Amino acid sequence: MNTNIKIMKNYINGKWVDPENRGYIDVENPATGEILAKVPLSTREATNYAIESAVKAFPGWSNTPVARRVRYLFELNELLRANEDKLARVLVAEMGKSYTDSIAEFKRVYENIEVATGMPVLQQGDKIIGTSFDIDGEVLRLPLGVFAMIAPFNFPAMVPFWFLPYALATGNTFLIKASKQVPMTMQLITEYIDQIGLPPGVFTLVNGDKTVAEAFMDHPQIKGISIVGSSNTCKIIAENCARVNKRFQAMGSAKNHLVVMPDAKLDQVIRNATTSCYGCAGQRCMASSVIIGVADMYETLCERFIEDSKNIIVADPLDPKFINETLVMGPVISKKAKDFILHMIEEGIKEGATLALDGRGVVVPGCEKGYFIGPTVFTDVKPKMKIHDVEIFGPVVCIMKADNLDEAIQIINDHKYGNGSSIYTQNGYYARKFKLEVEAGMIGINIGIPAPVAYLPFGGMKESQFADIKAQGKAIINFFTEDKIITERYFKEG
Questions:
Q1: Residue 225 forms beta bridges with which residues?
Q2: Closest to 412 in 3D by CA, of 286, 258, 190
Q3: How far apart are alpha carbons 369 and 70 in whole angstroms?
Q4: Where are the beta strands (DSSP E) in 120-220?
Q5: Most CB contacts within 10 A, which of 11, 184, 253, 316?
Q6: 3-state DSSP assignment of residue 19
Q7: Contacts of 262 (CB under 8 A, 6+ apart)
Q8: Whether the model pTM is above 0.90
Q9: How confident is the model at residue 1 (pLDDT cuts 50, 70, 90)?
Q10: 2 pLDDT above the threshold of 80
Q11: What's the whole-number mean pLDDT along residues 82-104?
Q12: Is residue 398 annotated as a catalytic residue, yes or no?
């Protein structure tokens, strides 16, 4: 029994507070079943109070020179880097991904902060002299007010930093609702945010469930909401925000395909695909969950991928024996998630797919209460089977066959999700055709994961994204600012 269970708090108006709440829920280590913390379910009233604090902070913060705003980000970046090991271990304990995956996640955090520190240049407007006789035109990019985000469980550090540093650097105030399943990582990050001395109300952390999210959507002073979650949740956010003219970025579900052409370098394919499919136990929006072998590549691909999948180490990611092991795979996030994945495996069997590698029944010694599933591979998967259609969000991989590249592209484009897709080929024609014709927002050429790169936008297509503006990078500045167009003329005196 853990006698050091931490009670999560909210961070409002520059202070840690015990919120008015509807009770607490347990935060569980998914590898061991140990209770790590208790997180409050904040009330709508507590959330509204937090929002009002952010509203009051906006005028002073937006009028702070941009160069001074980004100084706080420089300081935060140094604090997070200096405490990387502590942060990564907290993330591993509450989420279950490997230590090496957690370290990689924080690298993305730093990169986004670093891009946002360029705001003195990135937020510059435009001016043209002589739009007409003696008339000049100017575009100002101005902050709007208070923004909020709803964080997912799978990347509790990285995903908030697709938004947070850009919102603050552009002069907005910002609220985060941490995932109730993994609130400890953002709680610790907020402790470091508290140390950099931001003006009260500029940054706010609210813990809770959908009550908090609904308060964000309903409050008239929230100018925009960002969320990464399931497509069903994203639709709700998008519809509610659109109804009241509130900005939104809603990044949804995925079913990412890898296409392996006959000329692909198979050794590199297998190494990349294994990492892509099983990293974070398959619980990431860019995980590859479908592999399409084209023509004669299919049989060899199945054989090689299945054999390599057997090399994945299923273990407690904080076990000292595996702490730095890149091939270790931890548990899925919860019993509910595990039960759903097991149900989908049964569905695949019923539909007639071949269960070529069965990851059910895995037991990790000392972690009998953990939510582990081993690498699982289906072959002979056909389009429209449930295991191909549904986002399983676990270490379950479907291998399909296509006679040619056109058929492979058709399989991808017929799918309702369009988050990411990659092709393995040495043929420039195939690569060009793939990147132009595939309906997915993130395209990879000879890489397993078109991972988020902070300098570039990130987001999908079709039902994988409900937004016009993607996350992070230069593009997101348009989400957090309003263009104000000035047309001016001055008459000569006398």
A1: 148, 248
A2: 258
A3: 45
A4: 126-132, 135-143, 146-150, 173-177, 203-206
A5: 316
A6: coil
A7: 294, 295, 296, 297
A8: yes
A9: very low
A10: no
A11: 98
A12: no
Which is nearest to 364 in space by CA: 326, 314, 322, 318?
314
Identity of residue 478: N
451 pLDDT above the threshold of 90: no
For the chain, the structural domain boundaries read: 6-252+464-485, 256-445
CA of 252: how far to CAs of 73, 224, 233, 318, 374, in Å? 28, 17, 8, 30, 25
* DSSP one-letter code for 441: S
pLDDT digits (tens, 9 = 90+) for 269-321: 999 999 999 999 999 999 999 999 999 999 999 999 999 999 999 999 999 99
- What does CATH list as the number for 256-445? 3.40.309.10
Dist CA 403 CA 478 (whole Å): 43
- Measured CA distances, 443 to 28, 70, 363, 424, 432 (Å): 35, 32, 36, 11, 11
Rounded to an integer, what distance in angstroms lies between the CA atom of residue 95 and that of residue 73? 26
Query: How many whole angstroms separate alpha carbon 61 and alpha carbon 201?
Result: 9
Q: How far is CA 338 from CA 91, 289, 299, 333, 345, in A?
A: 19, 16, 30, 8, 11
The pLDDT of residue 4: 78
CA distance 234 to 227: 7
Same fold, 6-252+464-485 and 256-445: no
- For residue 125, the one-letter residue type is G
Q: Is 103 exposed, middle or buried (0-12, 13-18, 19+ CB in 10 A)?
A: middle
Query: What DSSP character marks residue 471?
Result: B
- The per-residue pLDDT for range 125-176, each reduced to its tens digit, is 999 999 999 999 999 999 999 999 999 999 999 999 999 999 999 999 999 9
Question: Which residue from 378, 382, 413 is spatially nearest to 392, judged by alpha carbons?
Answer: 378
Active-site option among 234, 280, 285, 398: 285
Find residue 485's DSSP bridge partners: 139
Q: Average pLDDT in the 411-434 region?
A: 98
Residue 90 near residue 317 (C-beta atoms within 8 A)? no
**Strand-pair category, 288-294 with 396-402:** parallel
The pLDDT tens digits for 360-375 are 999 999 999 999 999 9
Question: Nearest Cα to 372, choosing from 344, 346, 394?
Answer: 394
CATH number of 6-252+464-485: 3.40.605.10
SS (H, E, C) 212-233: HHHHHHHCCCEEEEEEECCHHH
